[in-house]
Structure formats: C-alpha cells, structure tokens
C-alpha cells in the first residue's frame, strides 16, 4: 500500500516558479514510474512529466524546458520544479505512481498562474 501526499502549489504570477512535492508512505519497492498529471477546467487530464525506475524522463511538449521532474529515493519524495510559469499552466496537479497493475494517486493541488 502506497499513499501519496502532495505539498506546494498555490498562486503565482506569470514568469514565477513553484516546486511541487509528492511524499510517499508505505513501500515504494518496485514502483515503475512516477508521474505528474494536471487537469484544467474543461480539459482532459494531461500527463505533464514522468520519471521511471531507470530515471528516464518524459515531458509534455508544452512544458519542455520549463518543468523538471526528479526524485529522492531516500526520502521517498518526487518533485516537480516549475519555472517560467504561464497562465495556461493553471490546473490541479496530481502525483501518480504505478507498480505493475497498481496505481496510486495524490489528492491534487491547485496551481494558479495569474497577475
């Protein structure tokens, strides 16, 4: 059993930065991938960033060069560093982990980019 607890996020001005954290409890042994998804009002849930057990990463085209996903196995925490934020980045961001057929989700955290 894995539980994910997110922190960070909030209101930031365009061009600003935020770092989201996803702290896992329970065993993360054999977790295959860690992801950040986001869902904006009226839009589908979108995969923003992914880091695998081999530490390969993927990013949505819309965030490449601005967002960075990383993880700290010792602290069982995954991060999403978000720089040069744009209003279109406004969404609820969700942490997600996969272990074979099992999926785990955080509660979601609101990120609002506005003046």
Please, could you describe this protein's structure?
This protein is mostly beta strands and 115 residues long. 0% of the residues lie in helices and 57% in strands. It is built from no helices and 11 strands. Strands 2, 4, 5, 6, 9, 10 and 11 form a 7-stranded mixed β-sheet that branches. Strands 1-3-8-7 form a 4-stranded antiparallel β-sheet, with no helix packed on it. A hairpin with a 4-residue loop joins strand 7 and strand 8. The chain starts with a strand and ends with a strand. The mean pLDDT is 95.
Q: How is this structure best summarized?
A:
With 115 residues, this protein is an all-beta fold. It has strands at 2-7, 10-12, 18-26, 33-39, 46-52, 57-59, 67-72, 77-82, 91-99, 102-105, 109-113.
Summary keywords:
115 residues, mainly beta, seven-stranded mixed beta sheet, four-stranded antiparallel beta sheet, 0% helix, globular
What's the alpha carbon Rg, rounded to whole Å? 13 Å
- The total beta strand count reads 11
Helical/strand content category = mainly beta
Described by strand count, sense and barrel closure, the largest sheet is: 7 strands, mixed
Instruction: Characterize the overall form.
Output: globular
Q: Order of SSEs, N→C?
A: EEEEEEEEEEE
Q: Compute the average pLDDT.
A: 95
Give the end-to-end Cα distance, rounded to a whole number of Å: 40 Å
- Low-confidence stretches are none
Multimerization status:
single chain
Q: Please tally the helical runs, counting DSSP H or I stretches of 4 or more residues.
A: 0
Q: Can you give the helix content as a percent range?
A: under 10%
Name the beta content range.
over 45%
């Amino acid at each position: 059993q894995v539980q994910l607890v997110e922190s960070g996020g909030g209101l930031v001005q365009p061009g600003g930065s935020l770092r989201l954290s996803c702290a896992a409890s329970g065993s993360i042994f054999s977790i295959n991938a860690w992801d950040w998804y986001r869902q904006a009002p009226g839009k589908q849930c979108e995969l923003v960033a992914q880091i695998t057990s081999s530490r390969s990463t993927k990013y949505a085209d819309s965030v490449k060069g601005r967002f960075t996903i990383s993880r700290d196995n010792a602290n069982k925490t995954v991060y999403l560093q978000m720089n040069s934020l744009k209003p279109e980045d406004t969404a609820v961001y969700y942490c997600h982990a996969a272990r074979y057929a099992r999926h785990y989700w955080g509660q979601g955290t609101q990120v609002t980019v506005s003046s």
